[in-house]
Amino acid sequence: MTLDPVPALDVDPLIDDPGTRIIVCCGAGGVGKTTTAAALGLRAAERGRKVVVLTIDPARRLAQSMGIDSLDNTPRKVTGVDGTGELHAMMLDMKRTFDEIVEAHADSERADAILNNPFYQSLSAGFAGTQEYMAMEKLGQLRARDEWDLIVVDTPPSRSALDFLDAPKNLGSFLDGKFIRVLMAPAKVGGRAGMKFLNVGMSVMTGTLGKLLGGQFLRDVQTFVAAMDTMFGGFRTRADATYRLLQAPGTAFLVVAAPERDALREAAYFVERLAAEEMPLAGLVLNRVHGSGAARLSAERALAAAENLDEPGIVDQEAGKEALRSSPEPPTSTASSEPSVSPEPPVSAPATQHDETMNDQTSSDQASSDRASSDQTQPSDARQLAAGLLRLHAERMHLLAREQRTRDRFTALHPEVPVTEVAALPGDVHDLAGLRDIGDRLASGIRPAGAA
What we know:
55% helix
């Protein structure tokens, strides 16, 4: 049975298309989403588009790679971009984004009351789901300004990188739903009965709300709800609008993964979730794929060669039987059959010449011995080095085989998803040149085996 070829993901047509207005990079943590988003933004800008990259990565690597001292909630222009386009970058400040919503939808007096309210300050700074919701709020703001013709979003780091799809709906429900009415119930009951209800009902709350328990808590909730009352419906409306924006044809999702089992399992979940939510998926970016310049040498052959170097056979011995045949004869005994000849009496001059000859021969023998010892040591060191390199190559080939099996499992489950592979780099990306290199690899990088 022959598998259908895997479609190849072509990045340049995606970022060149003026109809593409939003690219969302999603995936598990630590797979290179931020770098991918920045590289796509830079490449699109250098191909003539006006781009803003929105990151939620607190590590600030994006700012460093783009030569900016720091990023905040305001888009900042990146210098050093080639071509006719522009590149801007920003990092989400979720509290500041929440403050901007309040300031935009309330008069100055009411806005001050909300912004200074302790309950609001805890909610805007650390309530579960606030970061994801504010990322989508900021995306909606950027899109409404219509100042950029392409927005690239680096999604929040979380256990499930698609939490941001649920966050607008969840936080909108929180601010416009039963929970607020439950919080207001003690205030409406009043008196001791109200405080008893508060003590019993609120005692189960933990986390951010738990820190607010106390005599002032009820009044803070009352003030917050009274000030926000006219805005609750707005949260729901904007959440729905952002969700529709993510489903629009001008949006493209790129799932980013590493060629590892857990990362590709998450990628498969993202693909299935996006399909269920009718979100437009552009394809899979497989990051940090390893390769070898000597792939024709299999791991098995490399290991066999390494073992032969460690334990050489007779063909590898230095002398063998030839050495025995050419070795000097042992000294003969006095009972030898050769006739005995008496030596002539020595004279002084020949005796001196004989001593010098013997000294020269001794020096020559010592030098030969030293060279032989050296010759025996050097081949041994070379063999050990070669054996070590062969074993490293075998490990690399096993890694390549494992990555290939993992990719094959994903493509067997989702043969319709276009894929591009980005080769692993020897170091981290820390400047525009590095981002440009990643962009080149994204656009014309490795195609998966059997790619169309």
